[in-house]
Amino acid sequence: MVKTVKKEDIDEKAIIASFLQDEPTDHDSLVNETRESAEEPPAVQAEAPKEESRRRKSKGQDYENLFIRNTDTSTRSGKTAYIRKEFHDRITRIVQVIAGNELTLFSYLDNVLEQHFNTYQEEISDLYKKRNTDDIF
Hints:
Elements: H1 12-20, H2 27-39, H3 48-59, H4 63-67, H5 85-98, H6 105-131
């Protein structure tokens, strides 16, 4: 026998909340978490100055010289990697506008990753060595 459900008995917010997370939770717990986080004062970030100092180091270098340049590596020798659609759209606009469509997405991403690895090489190596015996760089 089929159970009939009254329209007013359906909790729309709970259904929507179940789609927002990997594991469905109760709507009431989500509402309570939201209220608690709104009442808490913002936490002071201790690592912000460290991040700023990294950015200041690269501020002396021109963004275009760092990232908007072609790489020597061929796209064919690379590998496929998937990124979010909004990042792909944003990177495409950057390449089209700033580089005047004279730069490939591959070159831009290669330059960004190269700078990331140069900036965070020490931290990445330390974390990697904690979990593995060989060197990553």
